[in-house]
Write a structure and sequence with these properties.
The structure holds 3 protein chains of 3 kinds.
Chain A: E1 5-10, H1 16-22, H2 25-34, E2 36-39, E3 52-58, H3 64-76, E4 77-83, H4 84-89, H5 101-108, E5 132-134, H6 141-152, H7 164-170, H8 176-180, H9 196-199, H10 216-225, H11 231-238, H12 246-253
Chain B: E1 9-12, H1 16-25, E2 29-36, E3 39-44, E4 55-60, E5 63-68, H2 85-88, E6 92-101, E7 104-109, E8 117-122, H3 124-137, H4 145-153, E9 155-160, H5 170-173, E10 185-191, E11 195-201, H6 204-211, E12 216-217, H7 220-236, H8 246-251, H9 257-265, H10 271-275, E13 282-288, E14 294-301, E15 311-312, E16 316-317, H11 322-341, H12 351-354, H13 362-377
Parallel strand pairs in B: 2-8, 8-9, 9-10
Antiparallel strand pairs in B: 1-11, 1-12, 2-3, 4-5, 6-7, 6-14, 10-11, 13-14, 15-16
Helix pairs in contact in B: 9-11
Chain C: E1 13-22, E2 27-34, E3 48-53, E4 57-62, E5 73-78, H1 82-88, E6 95-102, E7 115-121, H2 129-137, E8 145-151, H3 160-166, E9 171-176, E10 204-209, H4 212-224, E11 232-235, E12 251-252, E13 255-256, E14 263-265, H5 266-274
Parallel strand pairs in C: 7-8, 7-10, 8-9, 10-11
Antiparallel strand pairs in C: 1-2, 1-6, 2-5, 3-4, 3-6, 11-14, 12-13
Classes of the chains: A alpha/beta, B alpha+beta, C alpha/beta.
């Protein structure tokens, strides 16, 4: 039996999510035993031609060229999984969606005329059909392995979409909002990171994007009502790596 | 556990370490309250010095702060965010492993890893909570063998509360502030001219342990001081929950506009269920290695607030609205729990009130439903 | 009834597949037997087992066997992906895990001497198949027996061969949702099959299983015809992980579907089913 072919693609991103795959060290060998890593430029220059059984796509769409390239990637991919906040929500670079990108270009680049960019940074799913989205900035390598494992064995990935609070309480971390008045996005954020920040007495930054049924309005009202955060910082809290995820976007706009 | 007829005794503060040492000598693993990052959590302890000496907690809906008491009390605070279920029913536990060959699966049960815990400083409300979970996990037909093994070995050193938090309502639930039974030994901390503990023995094991450490018989004054201590907790009791007819009020108010109001605030984050000492819901994770020959099943704490909890193929989640999920939790606690287990699912510890990140208060919600139920029936 | 002799109620027993028969495009009939024959438990029609597909997980599946056949258990499983797909793909000789039986089952003992109407919608016919076998094998203990069975499409009927045999002994009526070229029978809802059905409302018991909406419509129809709700029995479905009342998932108000159900008398649950949403 031939092994399924895996390809890893990069769009506008920092490469951190692809690195999670290399970070799998111990499991990488057994992974290579089950799947043919056919196209993964971060790891090897050897490229096997498509089509591919599984494509992992990192990054968002920010240029006209990428907008065309993702369509080609989709055409070569039987099953396409987007990985990370850039690919699933537009990433930190989606902050441009709230401003005029031309203003940035003229400030940042000596020769703005060389820059060919779109006005927005958009998730892959805004352009092509996506079979599964794995959230996180960066993604969790165990969850990535679970997605690949579930693909290999044709089952649904066991990736819960509930709050970070559940992970926090399972690991025994008391709520930082309740005990220290720290503004934390945990109650509205998708689990997956293992609740790292609250374990180090920091509020959740929402790296994994909105959870299922996120009640951002109630959380924001409470944090503001109890003076845990200023209106300005509230806007920033919702406008980070998942700024363009609809629930976070809508909430941030309430604090403009 | 049967109550013994032993008369109350007294232990000096300095002999608490002897008590702990005696427990250790019996092979118990001591776990109890410790201060970690400004919160009282349960962890391994060794001596009285590991306890939150001189701390008290200020609790209100959605807030918890530790403050100095101004004395050297060992147990001068109330319950924190963790419950003893973290030891008896751990948040994540392997149930079994399995290995597959072409024509066979070999299932390997996970032998209960059951240290004999000595729970130090169990409050009356939490003794009741443990009993509530006993009813779930130690049913005659289908006992959870891991829970049962740990529970049967556990030594309970109770502490009667001498103070109450603003979130406490054990008096309404008839679960405290004094532990009446369900303990091996129960302490009441007295701080006056001297610092000592009045001890009641609940079991033969408790009595045997007490006999190993320095103690004296309690006199009338000691018992008065202990009663005054409990009275103080009663006077400080921060909240009330009127339970008269409450089971029926909830069962006839599945449709009530109040659920919409609370749903606007509820984050469905599940914190209330995680901190609740009686919440028992769980899920399982079935995993395999990449080659697919070795499988494991893990049980983890779950919550009725998640969408997956009631997910049905082809039908989505039965309780998809926030309103239905909050209603399920509260109605279960205060009403349907009686039908299922012949007891309240709420013990009045107040954890869900303090640890709700937006301060939703079960006593306030119950009172609002009662009022609106009354108006409907007028 | 014997309780399974397990120290750990969450530990599956090793079983192997004896037979795998495609019932229709979505459904597979799986016959399984225990590796250790002492693990074959007695069960009642309407009870269910937890079937474990290696590495995929576990799902509750109604027992489907003819209760008189003791050497194996049969299940009809619809492939909705995941665990069910893995179960449907098992071939004879393949291993799986089984826990059970769980739940209360149909109240067969209360039905003696009465007329019986069995109403099935789609896959709801599965837990009712042992009922039909029981009725056929004890035919003289019961009055008139009717099976009213509705399906989305003609090809989705389960147990086609058996239906033909059953027709000789009991009143079998079939209906499909919409007109279809390969169907010369009636179309409409299962409830339409009660037309011309002679009902002795004081001496009839009804058993209904199917999608929740079908259950509600059918039960209401029976009430309309004057059958008291305590004689209308329904079988319900909810998400469950443990089947022993400990995971909390299958709660339906005060009841756990896994141990207080899955079969309920309609009078006990009608309010929660119809008047209240999302219980």
């Amino acid at each position: 039996m031939t092994k399924p072919k895996l390809a890893v693609w990069k769009f506008a991103s920092c490469d951190g999510c692809q690195l999670s795959l290399l970070d799998c060290e111990d499991e990488l060998l057994s992974l290579a035993g089950e799947i043919d890593i056919a196209n993964f430029r971060e790891a090897s220059r050897a490229v096997v031609e498509g089509p591919y059984d599984l494509s992992l796509v990192e990054g968002s769409i920010t240029t006209p060229h990428d907008r065309e390239r993702i369509v080609e990637v989709r055409a070569q991919s039987k099953y396409l999984v987007t990985i990370g906040a850039c690919a699933t929500a537009g990433g930190i670079q989606a902050l441009r969606n709230f401003k005029d990108v031309k203003d940035f270009i003229s400030i940042v680049y000596a020769h703005p005329e060389y820059i060919d960019t779109l006005e927005t940074s958009t998730p892959i799913a805004a352009h092509v059909h996506v079979d599964y989205e794995l959230h996180g900035c960066p993604i969790n390598k165990k969850q990535l392995l679970e997605v690949i494992n579930s693909f290999l064995h044709k089952r649904k990935p066991d990736i819960p979409s509930y709050s970070v609070c559940i992970e926090c309480k399972r690991r025994g971390t008391p709520c930082v909002t309740v005990s220290h008045g720290i503004a934390c996005l945990g109650p509205v954020t998708h689990a997956g990171c293992g609740a790292i920040c609250p374990a180090y007495n920091r509020g959740c930054y929402g790296c994994y994007g909105p959870k299922e049924t996120p009640n951002t309005e109630s959380l924001a009202r409470w944090l503001r009502g109890n003076e845990m955060i200023s209106e300005e910082d509230m806007l920033r809290l919702f406008r980070t790596f998942n700024a363009d995820a609809p629930a976070f976007k809508k909430e941030s706009e309430r604090h403009e | 556990m049967k109550k013994t007829d032993s008369p109350a005794a007294c232990i000096d503060r300095k002999d608490i370490d002897a008590l702990f040492a005696a427990l250790k000598a019996e092979g118990y693993a001591l776990v109890g309250p410790t201060v970690q990052n400004g919160v009282i959590v349960y962890d391994d302890i060794s001596t009285a010095g590991d306890l939150p000496i001189g701390w008290r907690d200020e609790q209100e809906a959605g807030t918890y702060r530790l403050k100095k008491r101004g004395d050297a009390a060992l147990f001068g605070y109330n319950v924190g965010p963790q419950a003893w279920k973290k030891f008896l029913f751990p948040p994540r536990e392997k149930l079994w492993t399995a290995d597959k060959t072409r024509h066979a699966i070999a299932f390997h049960p996970e032998t209960p890893d059951a240290p004999g815990y000595a729970f130090i400083g169990v409050r009356a409300c939490d003794i009741h909570a443990i009993r509530v979970q006993d009813k779930v996990f130690m049913s005659k037909n289908h006992a959870n063998p891991r829970y049962k093994a740990r529970r049967e070995k556990a030594f309970i050193l109770a502490v009667n509360c001498g103070q109450a938090a603003k979130t406490c309502f054990c008096m309404s639930m008839n679960t405290g502030p004094k532990a009446e039974d369900g303990f091996d030994l129960a302490l009441t901390e007295i701080i006056g001219d001297s610092h000592y503990f009045v001890v009641e023995t609940g079991t033969e094991q408790g009595k045997a342990l007490l006999d190993k450490i320095p103690h004296r018989a309690a006199n009338e004054d000691d018992l008065k001081s202990a009663a005054a201590c409990t009275d103080n907790a009663k006077n400080e009791m921060g909240r009330k929950l009127d339970t008269t007819g409450l089971k029926d009020i909830l069962s006839r108010n599945y449709e009530n506009p109040r659920w919409e109001i609370v749903a606007e605030r509820c984050l469905t984050c599940a914190n209330c269920t995680m901190v609740c000492p009686t919440c028992f819901c769980s899920t399982v994770e079935d995993t395999t290695d990449l080659a697919g020959n070795h499988a494991e099943r893990w049980q983890t704490w779950d919550s009725c607030f998640t969408m997956d909890f009631t997910h049905l193929h082809g039908g989505g989640s039965v309780r998809h609205s926030e309103k239905a999920r909050y209603r399920q939790w509260m109605t279960h606690k205060l009403s349907t729990w009686f039908d299922q287990f012949d007891t309240s699912g709420c013990v009045g510890c107040g954890r869900c009130i303090a640890w709700c990140p937006v301060g939703i208060d079960i006593t306030e919600e119950a009172a609002a439903l009662r009022t609106s139920d009354g108006e409907k029936n007028d | 009834m014997t309780e399974p002799a397990l120290n750990d109620p969450m530990l599956p027993m090793p079983f192997v597949v004896v037979e795998n028969i495609k019932n229709n495009p979505d459904c597979t009939l799986l016959a399984v037997r225990p590796v250790d024959s002492s693990h074959l438990c007695l069960y009642k029609p309407g009870q269910f087992f937890m079937l474990y597909a290696f590495g995929y997980g576990e799902v509750p599946i109604s027992i489907n066997s003819d209760p008189s056949l003791k050497h194996s258990l049969t299940f009809t499983i619809r492939d909705v992906g995941g665990v069910t797909a893995a179960l449907c793909a098992l071939e004879p000789g393949d291993p799986l895990g089984v826990r059970g039986p769980f739940g209360n089952g149909w109240p067969m003992e209360d039905l003696a001497g009465r007329d019986v109407i069995v109403m099935a919608g789609g896959l709801g016919c599965v837990p009712l198949r042992p009922v039909v076998y029981h009725l056929l094998q004890n035919r003289k203990d019961y009055g008139r027996v009717s099976l009213l069975y509705g399906s989305r499409k003609p090809e989705a009927f389960l147990f086609n061969k058996e239906l033909q045999i059953w027709k000789r002994h009991i009143d079998v009526r079939l209906i499909v949702d919409d007109p279809a070229p390969n169907w010369d029978g009636p179309f409409g809802h299962t409830t339409d099959l009660v037309k011309n059905l002679e009902i002795d409302k004081d001496n009839t018991s009804v058993m209904i299983c199917g999608p929740e909406i079908m259950i509600n419509l059918s039960a209401d129809k029976m009430l309309e015809l004057g059958i008291p709700p305590q004689h209308v029995h329904i079988s319900m479905e909810r998400n469950m992980k443990c089947a022993i009342g400990q995971c909390g998932r299958c709660q339906f108000g005060p009841d756990f579907i896994c141990k207080d159900g899955p079969v309920f008398a309609y009078d006990k649950v009608v309010e929660r089913l119809l008047d209240i949403k999302e219980v």
